[in-house]
Structure formats: structure tokens, C-alpha cells
């Protein structure tokens, strides 16, 4: 019996976590690992204790900021990093698995926290209609390994 690669296990978990998101536009999941161990998980949505967009604003979602993004939500990678730090886990040298490539602000946080590698499933640029994945370009420029996950995963949630 062949054993699954850790990359497969962690990306499949990120996909499963994305299904927990309360966002009505996009579901994103993240898994933060170090030395084949999970140190934190996250998915996109509003801060804990505020509200759930799909329950309180099922038709239009949260109010939007000047760039058209949710004015309240945290991104999946932000949630994973913040939870790890809140619980005193060291994220330096870790690997982040995320279903959507990091946006530029998230890439800055990833770099600043010393995360050494990002493996992503889908392009943020393709999702947003941008010419390039700015977050990936930023990470690569400053020495963070960024790789598109090479395999396909069966996904049942159309928002992922």
C-alpha cells in the first residue's frame, strides 16, 4: 500500500478547511506546517465573535472596502498565522499550504513571519482578473519558495 505524500495530505486538508468558510464569494483554506507537523489551520472569514457573512448577509455579503474586498474578513493564511502566533507556535521556517495563491498584503506577512515555502492550488490573479500573481512575485523576489500544487483535487464546493 502506498502512502500519500505530505503535500497531498496538507493540500487536501486546506481544501476541506475552505469548505468551512462563511464567505459568500470565495472559500479559501490554509494549513501551516513545520517538519511534517501541522502547527495551525485557517480559512477566510470575519474575526471570531463578529458575524458569519452567509448567515447575516446571505444575498450581498459583507460591506466592501474601496478595492471591492470584504471590509471585515481575514484571509485564510492570515487566520492560520495569527492563530499560530496567538498560541505561541514558531512559524519561522514553516510551509504554508493554501487553496488560493496569497495576495500581495498576505505575501508581505508571510515573508515577514519567516515562512520559507508556500504551496498554492489556484492563482489569485486568475480569480481577480489580474495580469500576474503579485503575491507570488513578491515572495519569489525575496527568497520564499512558491510553488503551484501540481496535482488536481476533486472539489465539491463551487466557491473554492
Automatic annotation (TrEMBL):
It comes from the Bacteria. This is dCMP deaminase family protein. The keyword Metal-binding applies. Gene3D superfamilies: Cytidine Deaminase, domain 2 (3.40.140.10). The keyword NADP does not apply. Belongs to the cytidine and deoxycytidylate deaminase family. Pfam families: dCMP_cyt_deam_1. It comes from Cyclobacterium jeungdonense. Residues 5-134 form the CMP/dCMP-type deaminase domain.
